[in-house]
Amino acid sequence: MKSSKPPHRRHLPTSPFKPPPAAPPVEEFELQDQVTHDKYGLGRVVEVEPGRAVLVDFGTRKVRILAPFAKLFKL
Fold first, then answer.
1. What is the pLDDT along the chain (75 residues), one digit of tens a residue?
2. CA contacts within 13 A on the Cβ side of 55
3. 68 lies in a domain?
4. Which letter does DSSP use for residue 63 in this model?
5. pTM score > 0.70 for this model?
6. Residue 12 lies in a domain
7. What pLDDT score was predicted for residue 55?
8. CA–CA separation, 25 vs 22, rounded Å?
9. pLDDT value of position 1
10. Cβ proximity of 63 and 53 under 8 Å
11. Which residue range forms the structural domain that includes residue 49?
12. Which of 19, 51, 55, 50 is nearest to 35 (CA)?
């Protein structure tokens, strides 16, 4: 079964409604970046899969976090 996404809606310039806001850019992480996560706390990036995932060492455990890195912020 193929998953279906709703089609991208086109915004007409003459429309009285505001266009949807643009998605924020995906943050890029590098090795040894210090990061914080809402659930796991402070950590350090130990592996990067560009545009896909990062592996973060939070001290007590290592967690692989997938893009768009919802709760992960660079310090």
1. 566 776 777 777 787 887 777 776 778 899 999 999 999 999 999 999 988 899 999 999 999 999 888 789 999
2. 6
3. yes
4. E
5. no
6. no
7. 96
8. 9
9. 57
10. no
11. 34-74
12. 55
The whole-number pLDDT of residue 34 equals 97
Cβ(21)–Cβ(34) below 8 Å: no
What are the backbone angles phi and psi of residue 72, rounded to the nearest 5°? Answer: -110, 125
Three-state DSSP state, 75:
coil
**Tokens in use for 60?**
């007590």
Q: Are 57 and 46 in contact (CB under 8 A)?
A: yes
**pLDDT value of position 19:** 76
Provide the residue type at 15 as one letter.
Answer: S
Torsion angles phi and psi, residue 9, rounded to 5: -85, 130
Q: Is residue 60 part of a domain?
A: yes
Instruction: Tell me the two tokens of residue 2.
Output: 């193929």
Q: Is 11 inside a domain boundary?
A: no
- How far out from the chain centre does Cα 20 lie? 19
